[in-house]
Amino acid sequence: MQKEVLSILVDNHSGVLTRVASLFGRRGFNIDSLTVSTTDDPKTSRITIVVHDDAKVLEQIIKQTARLEETQQIFSLDASHSLLRELLLVKIEADEKNRTEVREIAEIYKAKIIDLSRESMVMELTGEPDKIDGFLDVLSPYKILEMCRTGVTALERGGIQKHPRVK
Protein backbone atom coordinates (compact mmCIF):
# COMPACT_ATOMS: atom_id res chain seq x y z
CA MET A 1 0.00 0.00 0.00
CA GLN A 2 1.31 3.39 -0.90
CA LYS A 3 0.07 6.88 -0.08
CA GLU A 4 -0.70 9.02 -3.09
CA VAL A 5 -1.63 12.70 -3.24
CA LEU A 6 -3.70 13.42 -6.35
CA SER A 7 -4.27 16.90 -7.70
CA ILE A 8 -7.32 17.19 -9.93
CA LEU A 9 -8.20 20.34 -11.87
CA VAL A 10 -11.90 20.33 -12.71
CA ASP A 11 -14.55 22.61 -14.19
CA ASN A 12 -15.90 24.79 -11.39
CA HIS A 13 -19.61 24.09 -11.32
CA SER A 14 -22.09 22.45 -8.99
CA GLY A 15 -22.05 18.69 -8.71
CA VAL A 16 -18.40 18.16 -9.71
CA LEU A 17 -17.23 17.22 -6.22
CA THR A 18 -20.14 14.79 -5.90
CA ARG A 19 -19.24 13.14 -9.20
CA VAL A 20 -15.56 12.73 -8.26
CA ALA A 21 -16.29 11.49 -4.73
CA SER A 22 -19.00 9.08 -5.92
CA LEU A 23 -16.61 7.65 -8.52
CA PHE A 24 -14.25 6.74 -5.69
CA GLY A 25 -17.11 5.38 -3.56
CA ARG A 26 -18.65 3.25 -6.32
CA ARG A 27 -15.27 1.66 -7.00
CA GLY A 28 -14.68 0.98 -3.30
CA PHE A 29 -11.71 3.34 -3.03
CA ASN A 30 -11.19 4.85 0.41
CA ILE A 31 -10.36 8.57 0.51
CA ASP A 32 -8.06 9.51 3.42
CA SER A 33 -8.35 13.24 2.81
CA LEU A 34 -10.20 15.51 0.37
CA THR A 35 -10.06 19.27 -0.09
CA VAL A 36 -11.46 21.46 -2.82
CA SER A 37 -11.16 25.14 -3.66
CA THR A 38 -11.25 27.54 -6.57
CA THR A 39 -8.01 28.39 -8.32
CA ASP A 40 -6.70 31.63 -9.81
CA ASP A 41 -9.14 30.92 -12.68
CA PRO A 42 -12.74 31.16 -11.39
CA LYS A 43 -13.79 28.54 -13.99
CA THR A 44 -11.48 25.93 -12.45
CA SER A 45 -11.39 24.21 -9.05
CA ARG A 46 -8.58 22.11 -7.56
CA ILE A 47 -9.46 18.91 -5.74
CA THR A 48 -6.69 17.38 -3.64
CA ILE A 49 -7.27 13.76 -2.65
CA VAL A 50 -5.06 11.55 -0.49
CA VAL A 51 -5.52 7.79 -0.95
CA HIS A 52 -3.71 4.62 0.16
CA ASP A 53 -3.65 1.66 -2.19
CA ASP A 54 -1.37 -0.41 -4.39
CA ALA A 55 0.14 1.03 -7.57
CA LYS A 56 -2.21 -0.85 -9.91
CA VAL A 57 -5.32 0.42 -8.13
CA LEU A 58 -3.95 3.98 -8.03
CA GLU A 59 -3.33 3.85 -11.78
CA GLN A 60 -6.96 2.76 -12.25
CA ILE A 61 -8.19 5.64 -10.04
CA ILE A 62 -6.28 8.17 -12.13
CA LYS A 63 -7.54 6.77 -15.44
CA GLN A 64 -11.18 6.66 -14.32
CA THR A 65 -11.07 10.18 -12.87
CA ALA A 66 -9.47 11.47 -16.07
CA ARG A 67 -12.47 10.13 -18.03
CA LEU A 68 -14.94 12.34 -16.15
CA GLU A 69 -16.27 15.09 -18.40
CA GLU A 70 -15.38 17.83 -15.87
CA THR A 71 -11.76 16.72 -15.36
CA GLN A 72 -9.24 19.07 -16.98
CA GLN A 73 -6.08 17.52 -15.50
CA ILE A 74 -5.18 14.87 -12.95
CA PHE A 75 -1.72 14.12 -11.69
CA SER A 76 0.04 12.59 -8.74
CA LEU A 77 2.11 14.92 -6.56
CA ASP A 78 5.59 13.78 -5.57
CA ALA A 79 5.92 14.67 -1.87
CA SER A 80 9.61 15.57 -2.28
CA HIS A 81 8.72 18.19 -4.94
CA SER A 82 5.48 19.46 -3.43
CA LEU A 83 4.22 21.52 -0.52
CA LEU A 84 1.59 19.69 1.55
CA ARG A 85 -0.26 21.47 4.34
CA GLU A 86 -3.16 20.92 6.74
CA LEU A 87 -4.92 23.12 9.25
CA LEU A 88 -5.83 21.92 12.75
CA LEU A 89 -8.13 23.55 15.29
CA VAL A 90 -8.00 21.81 18.66
CA LYS A 91 -9.76 22.68 21.94
CA ILE A 92 -7.95 21.38 25.03
CA GLU A 93 -9.19 21.30 28.59
CA ALA A 94 -6.81 23.83 30.14
CA ASP A 95 -7.20 25.31 33.61
CA GLU A 96 -4.73 27.16 35.82
CA LYS A 97 -3.00 23.83 36.66
CA ASN A 98 -1.98 22.82 33.14
CA ARG A 99 -2.35 25.99 31.06
CA THR A 100 1.38 26.81 31.21
CA GLU A 101 2.34 23.30 30.03
CA VAL A 102 -0.10 23.43 27.13
CA ARG A 103 1.08 26.93 26.18
CA GLU A 104 4.72 25.70 26.10
CA ILE A 105 3.75 22.84 23.77
CA ALA A 106 1.95 25.33 21.52
CA GLU A 107 5.07 27.53 21.39
CA ILE A 108 7.34 24.61 20.48
CA TYR A 109 5.07 23.66 17.56
CA LYS A 110 4.39 27.31 16.65
CA ALA A 111 0.66 26.84 17.19
CA LYS A 112 -1.42 29.96 17.76
CA ILE A 113 -3.68 30.22 20.78
CA ILE A 114 -6.82 31.70 19.27
CA ASP A 115 -9.24 31.38 22.18
CA LEU A 116 -8.82 31.11 25.92
CA SER A 117 -11.38 30.62 28.67
CA ARG A 118 -11.15 29.55 32.30
CA GLU A 119 -11.48 25.90 31.40
CA SER A 120 -10.22 25.56 27.83
CA MET A 121 -7.81 26.73 25.17
CA VAL A 122 -8.25 26.60 21.39
CA MET A 123 -5.13 26.36 19.25
CA GLU A 124 -4.57 26.65 15.52
CA LEU A 125 -1.72 24.88 13.75
CA THR A 126 -0.83 24.78 10.08
CA GLY A 127 1.80 22.43 8.74
CA GLU A 128 2.71 19.19 7.07
CA PRO A 129 0.55 16.21 8.06
CA ASP A 130 3.42 14.68 10.08
CA LYS A 131 3.75 17.88 12.12
CA ILE A 132 0.02 17.86 12.87
CA ASP A 133 0.24 14.19 13.89
CA GLY A 134 3.22 14.92 16.17
CA PHE A 135 1.45 17.85 17.81
CA LEU A 136 -1.63 15.73 18.52
CA ASP A 137 0.56 12.96 19.91
CA VAL A 138 2.24 15.37 22.35
CA LEU A 139 -1.19 16.70 23.37
CA SER A 140 -2.59 13.20 23.96
CA PRO A 141 -2.09 13.28 27.78
CA TYR A 142 -4.43 16.29 27.90
CA LYS A 143 -8.17 16.09 27.42
CA ILE A 144 -9.10 17.08 23.87
CA LEU A 145 -12.59 18.57 24.02
CA GLU A 146 -13.06 19.17 20.30
CA MET A 147 -10.95 18.93 17.21
CA CYS A 148 -11.29 19.79 13.52
CA ARG A 149 -8.64 18.95 10.95
CA THR A 150 -8.73 19.87 7.29
CA GLY A 151 -7.54 17.56 4.61
CA VAL A 152 -4.26 17.98 2.77
CA THR A 153 -3.95 20.82 0.33
CA ALA A 154 -0.92 20.80 -1.93
CA LEU A 155 0.96 22.47 -4.77
CA GLU A 156 4.09 21.50 -6.64
CA ARG A 157 7.22 23.52 -5.93
CA GLY A 158 8.69 25.83 -8.56
CA GLY A 159 7.11 27.28 -11.66
CA ILE A 160 4.17 25.98 -13.65
CA GLN A 161 4.51 22.23 -14.16
CA LYS A 162 3.62 20.68 -17.49
CA HIS A 163 1.00 17.99 -17.04
CA PRO A 164 -1.06 16.62 -19.92
CA ARG A 165 -4.51 18.10 -20.23
CA VAL A 166 -7.30 15.56 -20.23
CA LYS A 167 -9.50 17.42 -22.68
TrEMBL record:
Dimer of large and small chains. PANTHER family: ACETOLACTATE SYNTHASE SMALL SUBUNIT, ACETOLACTATE SYNTHASE SMALL SUBUNIT 1, CHLOROPLASTIC. Pathway: Amino-acid biosynthesis; L-valine biosynthesis; L-valine from pyruvate: step 1/4; Amino-acid biosynthesis; L-isoleucine biosynthesis; L-isoleucine from 2-oxobutanoate: step 1/4. One of its GO terms (molecular function) is acetolactate synthase activity. Residues 5-82 form the ACT domain. Catalyzes the conversion of 2 pyruvate molecules into acetolactate in the first common step of the biosynthetic pathway of the branched-amino acids such as leucine, isoleucine, and valine. It catalyses: 2 pyruvate + H(+) = (2S)-2-acetolactate + CO2. Gene3D superfamilies: 3.30.70.260, ACT-like. Chain A, domain 2. Its EC number is 2.2.1.6. Keywords: Amino-acid biosynthesis, Branched-chain amino acid biosynthesis, Transferase. It is an enzyme of class 2 (transferase). Pfam families: ACT_AHAS_ss, ALS_ss_C. This is Acetolactate synthase small subunit. Belongs to the acetolactate synthase small subunit family.
